[in-house]
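Give me the fold.
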Amino acid sequence: MSGRCIAMWSGPRNISTAMMRAWENRDDTVVMDEPFYAHYLHSTGLDHPMREEIIADGETDWQAVVRTVTRPPESGIFYQKHIATHWLAHFSTDWLDSLDNVFLIREPEPVVASYWVKRGDLTASDLGYEQQGFLFDLLHERTGSRPAVIDSKRFLADPEAQLRALCDQLDIPFDKSMLSWPTGPRDTDGIWGSHWYDAVNCSTGFAPTRNRETVLSDDQKVIADACRPIYERLREFAI
C-alpha cells in the first residue's frame, strides 16, 4: 500500500486519544499527536495547562506543521490526531486535499461536563464544533463528496463494525489489532498527556459508553446548546 496521511479531526474530551492508540497498534501505521497545539497556544495567548512546556516542546510555525503532516510515508499510514479547536482563521486550506480527512464527533453535553472538570474557564469555541462544521463543509464543497464521520457514542456500541466500515471507506485493510492495546503512555504522546491522558493510559481497548444522565449547570447548558446544532448536522452523515 502506498503511503497515506489520515487526519482525524476531533473536539476535546472525545475518544480521540483511544482512537490514536487503535491506529498506532497497527504494524503499518505511525501517529502524530495534536501537531498544531504549540502554534495554537503561541498564536492565541490562551492559558492552558502546561502552556509554556507545550510551546517550548512543539512547532510554533503552522506552515512547518503543514509541511510535516502532508508528507506521506513511502508505504503504510501516517495517522494524525487533530483537535479541531486548534484550527485558526489564518490557516490556508489547499493542503487539506492531500489528506484523508475524518471527523470524530461527540454529543456536546458530556463534552462540556468532562472538559469543565479539567478547565473550568470554558466557551463554546473551545470545543471545536464550529471548526469541525467549517472544515466538513469546505471539504464537501471542494470534493463533491462528504468526508467520513464517526459519532463516538455509535462507535462505542460496536467498535469493530465501525472500524471495519471506516477502513472500507478509506480503502484500507481492517486490522484486528486496532481493537486492543497495552496500557501506559507512548513516546508519541504529546507532553500534555501527563495532564490529560490518565484514563486512556489505563485502558486496553475501547470502553463501552456508560449510560448515565449528564447534569449541567445553566452556564454549561448554554455552551452545550450552542454546539448541538453543528453536532446534529454532522451526525446525519456518521457511519
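The longest strand covers residues 4-10.
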